[in-house]
Amino acid sequence: EDFNYFAYLGDYSNKRDSYNYKGGTLGRDQHRTRFYGSLANENHSVELHAVQSKNDAFMGTFENAQVKENDLEYSYISVSTHSKFLDDSLTFDFSYVNIDSVYDQNFNLPDLNITDLTANNKVKEEGLTLRLQKKWNLSDNEVTVGLQYRYKYFNITERTFNDKPLDGFTQAYDSENIFSLYLQDLYSINENNILSLSLMNQFYQRNGDVNAPNNLQLRLGYNYTVEKFSAKTTLSAQSFAAEPYTLISAGQSNVNLKSESYYSFAQELTFKSYNTINNFIFTYANLQDYPIPGRQDPNGTNIKPRNSEKSLDIITSSYEFTYY
Q1: What are phi and psi of 158, to 5 degrees?
Q2: How far apart, in whole angstroms, are the C-alpha atoms of residue 217 and residue 200?
Q3: What is the predicted pLDDT for the residue at 62?
Q4: Which of 20, 103, 239, 262 is least surrounded by Cβ atoms within 10 Å, i.e. has the fewest?
Q5: Which residue has the higher pLDDT, 227 or 248?
Q6: How far apart are CA 236 and CA 261, in angstroms?
Q7: Is the pLDDT confidence value at 250 over 50?
């Protein structure tokens, strides 16, 4: 049986100008080594992707600090497979991701006349996704039903200051399971008009509480296509349990945040001629109950991250022109 394969190995180095900030130096140099390989036949494929990078972090974590040096090391590896069965109507996908990152900083605090301080953070992340999907062609409808399982792990494995562990650090939880069931129907009115409906329910399970473990996502779409023009309209109403990354902070974790809600409208128009493509995209989104960071009140009391009482409106527009 015939196999297709591809392999790539690259090394990227970019020396860039540094910036002086508050008497310190913010570097921007980057160095990255990347490998990608794939092996596939008609029904099965496997991919391997690995990245090793060491960059200047170009940031500081302490107010009024003079940064002398700060580095961000990052190791990433992912393995994924894709398989097709029953005349491509049944698919199975697997993916695994492993990430290790280290952030080191050396700095001075001139206001306190303190020099050569160090800070270190190490983070371990893992992700596993399994998805099984089946399609049926029923007259003018293409119906898709899918099951998905996702495991996430996020652990701040080490936090040090001047080579000593930081006391008082708490982490609400380090792992979660997400179970998803989804349904999609593409209905062809005729060769120029297609309606789409997709519905997904996600159940979150964490080693910590979730205010609303069940979250629903609904999307409606309409596509109109002729030879030189197409229009794509999408409406969505979605809810998501707040991600662990927004909940983990030193002494301020809050696992009882409400789910955030997201409502959106998107319109895409494409005009084509014999040698040009004009693409217009407009989007509007309304975000509610999104998490906002924790802080300290004037009395020094820690206030945990919480849901915003205000909604956020986001409007974007873009135009893309292609000549060939």
Answers
A1: -155, 135
A2: 5
A3: 57
A4: 20
A5: 227
A6: 11
A7: no
| Alpha carbon 169 to its chain's center | 25
Sequence-distant (≥ 6) Cβ neighbours of residue 301 within 8 angstroms: none
Mean pLDDT of 257-281: 94
Q: Residue 108 burial (CB < 10 Å; 0-12/13-18/19+)?
A: buried
Is pLDDT at 296 greater than 70 in this prediction?
A: no
The CB-based long-range contact list for 239-244 (8 Å cut-off, 24+ gap) reads: 239/212, 239/215, 240/202, 240/215, 241/202, 241/204, 241/210, 241/211, 241/212, 241/213, 241/215, 242/291, 244/152, 244/154, 244/172, 244/173, 244/174, 244/176, 244/206
Residue type at position 260: E
CA dist 272 to 146, 222, 223, 232, Å? 35, 19, 16, 15
